[in-house]
Amino acid sequence: MVRSSASPASPESHRAPRSGARRWGLLLLGGVMLVGASGCRSVEPTGPPGDGLYLGAIAGAWWENFDMPTAFAVDQSAQFGARVGTRLLDRRAALELSLEHLVPVDLEVEDPSVVVGEVSGDLLMAHWKGYLVDAPLQGYWLVGAGVIDGEVTEDVGGGLASAGRGFTWRVGAGVEIHTGPEWSTQLEGTWTQPGGELDAFGYYSIVVGMLRRF
Q: pTM for the full model?
């Protein structure tokens, strides 16, 4: 947990931005799930989605839902990563590895609004995806587990305030659009929840990905 000599803000000053971040995160994640559900319909394929190995890259944003002391506020930031996986079960499922980096986000004392540090992390996740139809537009769900290497650095006074590695689980949904026999794009929303020393650092994320199948 972060330690700082700054005086804590009142719970009232902290509640509004935290509830706003949670509300927008839930709306965005729910929207992606609805898009994914609408993509789970049978349409006449224009080309085979492709079996076997695929490689890809992702980029997007993440929103905190940290269980932090009331003195602190955290905004959203960017993330990027790479994925490798393979289609299984007649293209109705996929098993993939995802290496991700969370771009540091400012950690602020709300009253006064002063940046006192930043939060960042790296993850290695294994995902199991289920596809409901074999078509150019495919909605899917995913569950995942892995490890996170996260840290909170403190600008006031310098030094490392908190760091650790922990088990992480993830749930989400998305939609994949096949633009040809080799290429596809993805829109995906997830909730990620670390455990252990980092169990306060859960977050939402929305990413767009480009995949190349072999």
A: 0.71
